[in-house]
Amino acid sequence: MKSIVLLIVVVSYPLFLAASASAQSAPWTLGEREGRQCLVTPDGKPFMMLGISHVGGALGGLKGTERETRLVEIEQQLRGWHFNTVPQSDLWDRFPFIVPLDRLVGAGESRFEDVFDPAFKARLRKKISDACAKTKNKPNCIGYWWTDIPPWPLSSKKKHGKNWVEFIRDLPASAPGHQRYQIFLKEEGPHDDVAFLRLIARELYADSAAAFKELDPQRLIFGERYDTFNVPTEILEEAAKVVDVISVQPYEGKFNAAKYDEWHKLTGKAIVISDWNLSFPTAEHSVTMWPQFKSPFEAADAYEKYLKAAFEKPYVLGYFKCQYVDQVLPTGMLKQGLIKPEGTTYAEFSGLLTGIHQRLIEQLQAEGRLPQQP
Question: CA separation (Å) from 26 to 128, 145, 199, 221, 333?
Fold first, then answer.
């Protein structure tokens, strides 16, 4: 009898592994319900993202049992506020997520690279390979984000001392980027900085997308998280050739429908609000990041109006609120979350936000873009 049981286990175990691997490799995809775009989960259900970024600060230096206990508390809190998507890696097994690579290009204050250099291409591929190795078998993985706030505008020299074209042009004569620029000057067509900026984007985007499609072909590419709507048209056109979704961090208190429509029309892609927030002053901090309103109530009112307008757009797939726990920047500015560092919750605002999310969920369920709760 023991032999029969053992035989059943031996025969069944590979079948179980195959079934598990199949389930894990099932992709998230883009879909549509009644003319409105949405994500589709591996098991075929519609999904819209109500996400929150920057959760890691709440974990501090916790380890072992204390860390796990805190993660359970965070999960319960986020679900209570009706968040359903969290990029923080410690929560990947608990929520759907997009992998935030943050700095696919550059490091620290160095935002520019010679994208034509084989050495850079090798580093790029290594970063992508490392990311894919960690997540490609995780069923909650929706896809990947690339660089956070890439410095594409030619006006970025005001902040970084030079822009990307000037960086390439100023490289040594032996550098691959400098040599590519000299070839560019001899080619037909315009020879201005915008034209070469397009070539930089084309090179970087094509290489990045090719690596992701090779190493983890089933995941969605959400591209770079652009800073507001100041990205040159040429960059968006190049991105649209290789990404699945356009990501933007709109630093605004009132929904700019014209800009959203412009980007969607230009790229033909769905859009995700990858980082966004509104704020209000506190007794300790009169200066806060993101558009500030006089009180939690006014901030919540503007918050709901913004999200309601955003989700009325049939191409918006979701949003990510900036910040879970307060962070004070070196300038003294408060990057406001939903809880203070000591663990005290902004009860008024978080309660209002919970209601906003609940109303959005009901709207999205009525549209068929979120499954009805049993």
Answer: 20, 19, 35, 16, 43
Each residue's pLDDT tens digit, 77-104: 999 999 999 999 999 999 999 999 988 8
Q: What are phi and psi of 75, to 5 degrees?
A: -60, -50
Mean pLDDT throughout 325-346?
Answer: 94
Q: How far is CA 189 from CA 106, 186, 192, 234, 235, in A?
A: 30, 9, 9, 15, 17
The tally of CA atoms less than 13 A away on the side-chain side of residue 171 is 22
Please report where in the chains the tokens 């959400």 appear, as a residue: 222
Identify the residue whose tokens are 């998230």. Answer: 28
Residues written for the chain: 374
pLDDT in tens, 234-279: 999 999 999 999 999 999 999 999 999 999 999 999 999 999 999 9
According to CATH, the topology of domain 27-366 is: TIM Barrel (3.20.20)
270: β partners: 245
**Where are the alpha helices (H) located in the chain, listed in sequence order?**
2-25, 64-80, 118-135, 157-160, 164-169, 176-186, 193-215, 233-240, 257-267, 296-312, 347-366
Cβ atoms within 10 Å of 300's Cβ, excluding its own = 21
How far apart (Å, rounded) are the C-alpha atoms in residues 64 and 246? 38
**Which of 141, 296, 109, 139 is closest to 212 using CA atoms?**
141
Q: Which of 94-108, 111-125, 208-222, 258-272 has the lowest mean pLDDT?
A: 94-108
Domain ranges of the chain: 27-366
Secondary structure letter of residue 1 according to DSSP: -
Q: Which residue is associated with the tokens 């919750």? A: 345
Phi, psi of 147, rounded to the nearest 5 degrees: -70, 140
Helices (H), 94-156: 118-135
